[in-house]
């Protein structure tokens, strides 16, 4: 599926999502968008709302948490989600 279409789902709460793509695919699309903080931030919100987490999501969160081009606020939120799921 087109990444742009996946990203648009992040603009709505996880509970409102009823599409055919998996929430994991949508979260990964958001976490993988490094041109701004907007999409990674929304992807982290979905994770905070209870979106499923797998090994790929954990790896993407680790990349976001280490990426200096992303704001410190988003990096810290990604690290908090990462720690919660690695514990």
Task: Write up what this structure looks like.
- The chain has 87 residues and is mostly helical.
- It has one domain (3-11, 23-86).
- The protein contains five helices and no strands.
- The relative contact order is 0.16.
Are there runs of 5+ residues with pLDDT below 50, and where? none
Average pLDDT, rounded to a whole number, is 95
Please write the string of helix (H) and strand (E) elements.
Answer: HHHHH
Q: Span from first to last CA?
A: 32 Å
The structure class reads mainly alpha
* Number of discrete domains: 1
Q: What is this structure's SSE topology?
A:
Blueprint: H1 3-9, H2 23-31, H3 38-48, H4 55-66, H5 72-86
Helix pairs in contact: 1-2, 2-3, 2-4, 3-5, 4-5
What's this entry about, in short?
The chain is mainly alpha-helical and 87 residues long. The protein has 5 helices and no strands.
Keywords summarizing the entry:
about 90 residues, 5 helices, mainly alpha
């Amino acid at each position: 599926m087109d990444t742009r279409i996946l990203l648009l789902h992040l603009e709505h709460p996880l509970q409102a999502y009823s599409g055919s793509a998996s929430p994991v695919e949508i979260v990964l699309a958001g976490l993988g968008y490094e041109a701004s903080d907007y999409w990674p931030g929304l992807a982290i919100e979905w994770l905070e709302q209870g979106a499923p987490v797998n090994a790929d999501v954990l790896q993407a969160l680790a990349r976001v948490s280490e990426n200096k081009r992303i704001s410190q606020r988003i990096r810290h939120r990604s690290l908090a989600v990462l720690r919660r799921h690695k514990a």
